[in-house]
C-alpha cells in the first residue's frame, strides 16, 4: 500500500523552512545534552532522514523508520556510506513486528499530527524502549500564541479549556479520507504520555518566531539565537506552534 508521502515532494517542503529546521535542532540538542550519550536512537517517521546527521554526535547507532518507501530510499541513498544507520520501512503501528531491537531513545518529530490515537503510538514506543529509555516527542500545538489571541478576540473565552484536538484538513480532504492533520492540546498529550508509562522531564516551545514578516526581516543566525533564548522561557505558556517533550520510561513499565 502506497504511503501518503510517496506522492508528495517532502524534501522540497523544507527548502524554505531553514528556520524551522534549525529550531528543531536547537530543541533536540537541548534534550540530548540532558540524556547524555546514547547507544541506539530510533527516529520514527524520519522522512528522508533530515535529522540523522545531527544524531551522529550523540549515539553509536541510528535506526531510521519511515512508512514511505520513496522517502526511506532517499535516506538510504544519502547515507549509503554510513554503516551505523539501519532502516525500517514501517508505520509505527506495525513497528513491533518489524524489529526485535530495543532502543534507549526514540524520537518522533512531525509525526503525531498524522496520528488520530496518540495512546496507541505512545504504548508502542514504550515497548520499544529499554529500561529508563527516553522519548523525544514533537507535536503541533493547538494552543499556540497566535491561535489563543485569535480565539479570545473572537469571544471564544473557553478555548484554553477545549481539550479536544483540531483537524486542520479542509472539508474536501476530510471527505476524501486524506491523511489526518491534527493540532493537539498540550495538556491532552501530557496526560496520555503519563497514562502510557512516561514521566515528563522537560518541555520546550519551538519555532516561536514562525511569522512571515519576522522570518523575512531577520537573518537566520539571529532568528536561531533568539529561538535558543526563547524555547525554555516560552514553554510555560505553550507559546510556539510546535511543542517538544522529553519523557522517560517509568520504572514500573
Termini gap: 33 Å
Q: What is the tally of helical segments? A: 10
Strands, count:
9
How much of the sequence lies in strands comes to: 15-25%
Going across the biggest sheet, name each strand in turn: 3-2-1-4-5-9-8
Keywords:
single chain, about 250 residues, alpha/beta, Rossmann fold, seven-stranded mixed sheet, two-stranded antiparallel sheet, 9 strands, globular
Architecture overview:
The protein is an alpha/beta fold and 253 residues long. The protein has a single domain (4-242), classed as 3-Layer(aba) Sandwich (Rossmann fold). The protein contains 10 helices and 9 strands. The chain has helices at 10-13, 18-35, 52-55, 69-78, 118-128, 145-153, 171-175, 186-195, 212-217, 220-235; strands at 38-44, 59-65, 85-88, 103-108, 129-140, 166-167, 182-183, 198-206, 242-249. The protein is globular and about 50 Å long.
Fold topology:
Elements: H1 10-13, H2 18-35, E1 38-44, H3 52-55, E2 59-65, H4 69-78, E3 85-88, E4 103-108, H5 118-128, E5 129-140, H6 145-153, E6 166-167, H7 171-175, E7 182-183, H8 186-195, E8 198-206, H9 212-217, H10 220-235, E9 242-249
Parallel strand pairs: 1-2, 1-4, 2-3, 4-5
Antiparallel strand pairs: 5-9, 6-7, 8-9
What's the short story on this structure?
This protein is of the alpha/beta class and 253 residues long. It is 37% helix and 23% strand.
Amino acid at each position: 500500500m502506497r504511503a501518503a508521502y510517496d506522492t508528495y515532494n517532502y524534501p522540497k517542503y523544507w527548502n524554505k523552512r531553514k528556520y524551522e529546521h534549525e529550531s528543531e535542532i536547537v530543541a533536540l540538542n537541548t534534550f540530548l545534552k540532558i540524556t547524555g550519550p546514547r547507544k541506539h536512537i530510533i527516529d520514527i517517521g524520519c522522512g528522508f532522514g533530515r535529522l540523522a546527521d545531527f544524531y551522529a554526535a550523540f549515539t553509536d547507532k541510528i535506526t531510521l523508520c519511515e512508512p514511505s518507501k520513496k522517502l526511506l530510499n532517499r535516506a538510504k541513498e544519502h547515507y549509503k556510506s554510513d554503516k551505523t544507520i539501519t532502516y525500517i520501512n514501517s508505520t509505527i503501528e506495525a513497528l513491533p513486528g518489524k524489529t526485535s531491537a530495543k532502543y534507549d531513545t526514540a524520537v518522533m518529530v512531525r509525526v503525531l499530527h498524522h496520528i488520530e490515537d496518540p495512546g496507541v503510538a505512545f504504548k508502542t514506543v514504550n515497548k520499544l524502549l529499554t529500561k529508563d529509555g527516553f522519548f523525544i516527542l514533537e507535536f503541533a500545538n493547538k494552543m499556540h500564541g497566535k491561535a489563543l489571541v485569535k480565539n479570545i478576540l473572537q469571544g471564544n473565552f473557553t478555548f484554553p479549556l477545549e481539550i479536544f484536538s483540531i483537524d486542520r484538513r479542509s472539508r474536501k480532504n476530510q471527505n476524501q479520507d486524506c491523511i489526518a492533520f491534527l493540532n493537539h492540546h498540550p495538556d491532552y498529550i501530557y496526560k496520555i504520555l503519563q497514562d502510557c508509562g512516561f514521566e515528563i522531564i522537560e518541555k520546550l516551545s519551538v519555532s516561536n518566531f514562525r511569522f512571515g514578516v519576522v522570518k523575512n526581516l531577520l537573518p537566520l543566525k539571529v532568528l536561531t539565537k533568539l529561538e535558543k533564548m526563547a524555547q525554555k522561557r516560552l514553554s510555560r505558556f505553550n507559546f510556539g506552534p510546535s511543542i517538544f517533550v522529553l519523557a522517560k520510561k517509568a520504572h514500573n513499565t
